[in-house]
Design brief:
five-stranded parallel β-sheet; disordered N terminus; SGNH_hydro_sf; signal; Rossmann fold; single chain; alpha/beta; 13 helices
């Protein structure tokens, strides 16, 4: 009899512990995938860990989400795709995500820009030609499509894709050409991904930052300031319908 009582006691403790663990982790989870932007590069004194000032953590604070920031500085579309296909940490994180943010492609674009600038020898027309050729050869579009497909193999969670903001403050021809002439067309790639996939939404960083680089981009850098990350968090939450204003409006509609 006493043995049976002990067994029942152990079982009840196990189940009660599990229940408390579930309550403790009961928040919906946000997984941030991408490069140095979700990482929050250069926001802190060092870059040893993702910054708590980065937009994924700001989203988590605003919407009461548990955040898993998997941003890696320097990550390209090739690297992102490889991680999703082979890295169990990434795969498991995505598999259990309730929301996903995806920031990738900026480093591919910067690499194409640098290569074109180095090879063009100052010839502006040749620079344009080389840049477009490099972008096409890098197959950014194809790899972004494969990245979305890989995520969808693991999860049906809503995905927020960020397009590319204008990070350049210097009036150099190559940089301004990329920012003003090419980025609007390049950003159509991200819009196309939204239209082509279910439960994928766009956070329009290009429009949100506009020409306010002095406010939203770190001086002498290409990464967002704290204000820039606040802006990215805001447009991401709005895209998901998780910002406080939209939540309040939904509650009012339900009451009516």
């Amino acid at each position: 009899m006493f043995k049976a009582f002990l067994i029942l006691l152990v079982i009840s403790l196990v189940f009660s512990t599990s229940a408390f663990a579930k309550n403790d982790n009961g928040k919906n989870s946000l997984v941030a995938l991408g490069d140095s932007i979700p990482f929050g590069y250069n926001l802190d004194a060092n870059n040893n860990h993702p910054s708590k000032k980065a937009f994924p953590f700001l989203m988590g604070k605003e919407a009461d989400l548990r955040v898993n920031n998997l941003g890696i500085p320097g990550l390209t579309t090739d690297g992102m795709l490889n991680l999703l296909q082979t890295n169990q940490k990434y795969r498991q994180a995505v598999k259990h995500a309730d929301y996903i943010t995806l920031n990738i492609g900026s480093n591919d674009l910067i690499a194409a820009l640098r290569a074109a600038a180095a090879a063009s020898g100052g010839d502006t027309e040749y620079f344009k030609f080389l840049l477009m050729q490099n972008i096409e050869n890098s197959n950014i579009v194809g790899k972004l499509k494969l990245t979305i497909a890989e995520i969808r193999k693991l999860s049906a969670a809503p995905i927020v894709i960020h397009n590319i903001y204008n990070p350049f403050q210097e009036p150099e021809y190559e940089l301004q050409f990329l920012a003003t002439k090419l980025l609007p067309d390049i950003n159509k790639i991200f819009l196309g991904l939204v239209y082509a996939n279910e439960n994928v939404v766009l956070a329009d960083a290009y429009t949100a930052f506009g020409s306010n680089q002095a406010k939203y981009v770190i001086a002498g850098d290409i990464h967002p300031t704290v204000a820039g990350h606040e802006k990215l968090a805001g447009i991401s939450l709005a895209a998901l319908g998780l910002n406080k204003k939209e939540k309040q409006q939904k509650k009012k509609k339900k009451v009516k």
